[in-house]
Structure formats: structure tokens, C-alpha cells
Write a structure and sequence with these properties.
single chain; alpha+beta; 7-stranded mixed beta sheet; 29% helix; globular
Length: 157
């Protein structure tokens, strides 16, 4: 197993990862536009979500890419927001998601000590993140669109 930085040549595979998570309800096809914007910003080396000051994207690879996860940093808020974490549907429940989560937590601790970690997820995945120590701060019904509630979660260390 290897975790490495995102490369522009990974674009197609990252899109395939998202598609592999639509049938299980973790993403919807409409998410592809936002993911494409994120990837385009990564390829240009610019913040995808201004006023973030740093973007990172990490990919888990074992002979092939099976998962990806990223975060962006909001320096003034002392916050790192996790985004686009996903594992190929064929590799769910094998621990790769937890590995990617912990890798990002460790990177935040190393590069941004004292920063809080946040993320937005849905009613379909928030319990997974609770098991990893995240706490629900708020819930917005249909916050991600039709029948996808937005659970805003945080982790402080």
C-alpha cells in the first residue's frame, strides 16, 4: 500500500471512484461537476475553495488507485476541511477509508498544529465518521440536495 500526492493523470480514476459510490448512495451524479472543479483547481495549483490558502490531495494506491481524499485549509479560521474522500465501492469495509482519514488527520497535525478538522457528510455516512471521533455540530435537511441532509462535523485534538 502506498499513499502519494495527486497527479493530473489521476483525473479519470478519481471520477471513476465517484461513479463507483453512486449506487450505494454516497454520492450523486450531480457531484461530478463539483469534483471536476476541484480537480481543475488542483491541476492549476490554485485554491478550489477560496479563501483557502492551501489545497492537498492524496491518493491511496495498491497497484491501482483505489481511493482518494483531500483537504483544504482556512488559515484564519484555524481549520482544515476534509473533502472528496472516497474509496472504490469494490474495496469498502476493508479499512482503506480509515487509513485515508488518519493520513489526513496526521498531515493536519504535522503541517497545521492546533487546527480543527471539519467535514460535511450525509445521513448515510455520518455514523462512520462518528466512529473515527468526529462530532456532529449541525444538520441541514437537504443541505446537499434532494434527500441528502448535510451533517457538519468536527474533530479537535
Amino acid at each position: 500500500m502506498l499513499i502519494r500526492n495527486y497527479l493530473p493523470s489521476d483525473d479519470l480514476k478519481v471520477r471513476e471512484l465517484l461513479l463507483s459510490n453512486i449506487s450505494n448512495g454516497y454520492f450523486v451524479l450531480e457531484d461530478m461537476n463539483m469534483l471536476s472543479n476541484w480537480l481543475a483547481a488542483q491541476n492549476k495549483g490554485i485554491p478550489a475553495y477560496p479563501p483557502s490558502v492551501a489545497d492537498y490531495f492524496f491518493v491511496l494506491e495498491t497497484n491501482k488507485i483505489i481511493g482518494s481524499a483531500g483537504f483544504y485549509v482556512l488559515e484564519e479560521e484555524k481549520r482544515a476541511h476534509f473533502t472528496w474522500g472516497m474509496v472504490d465501492g469494490a474495496f469498502h469495509k476493508m479499512g482503506y477509508g480509515k487509513i485515508l482519514f488518519q493520513y489526513r488527520v496526521d498531515k493536519v497535525k504535522e503541517l497545521y498544529p492546533g487546527f480543527k478538522v471539519t467535514l460535511g457528510t450525509s445521513q448515510y455516512t455520518y455514523k462512520y465518521f462518528e466512529k473515527l471521533g468526529m462530532k456532529v455540530e449541525s444538520i441541514t435537511p437537504n443541505g446537499f440536495g434532494n434527500n441528502f441532509d448535510k451533517y457538519y462535523m468536527s474533530l479537535e485534538f
